[in-house]
Amino acid sequence: MAESVRKNKYFKIVIIISGMVLFFAVFVYLGIIKKEKNEAEYINMNLEVSRIKLLMTNQEVEELNMVKLVDLPNVGGKIKEIIEKEIKIGFGELGKYKDKLTYLEIGNKEYSIFNVKVGDTKVEIMNKLKNTKFKENKQTNTEDIAYTYRNIFITFQMVQGRVKIIVISIIDNKLKNINL
Description:
This protein has 180 residues and is α+β, with helices and mostly antiparallel strands. 32% of the residues lie in helices and 27% in strands. Strand 10 (152-159) and strand 11 (162-170) form a beta hairpin. It starts with a helix and ends in a 10-residue tail after the last strand.
């Protein structure tokens, strides 16, 4: 009888510990998802490109009824162009961002990211981004200026000291080092 009580007690302890481990695992998983969503929301709150936002699906972009998206010839992946608006968009092909908008290229002075627009100078970029979570990436060997925050990248392609094109991309960290 005493042995039966002891086994029952151990069984309850195992059930309680298993429940706590499961609860912790779910909590961590949901925290990771929320963190990634918050990063995209941080960008989207400071992104003014019509109604386009990072991590939208192709269908959501098409439902904006701006114009029909045009597939770019001779470009790998799912890059599309909205010619009238000087915007190129790309959708992830693998991982957690599969079929989500992960690439945005802006060549139109009407649009901005953190109030940086096509035509701005390096000093204007630095002033507008100094109070954001983004830090300048000093590893570029060109006139271009790059900023990063976790898995989000903003590159300002410069011509004669002014922004010509703004490129925003979000990368699945698990796929970052995979060469296709």
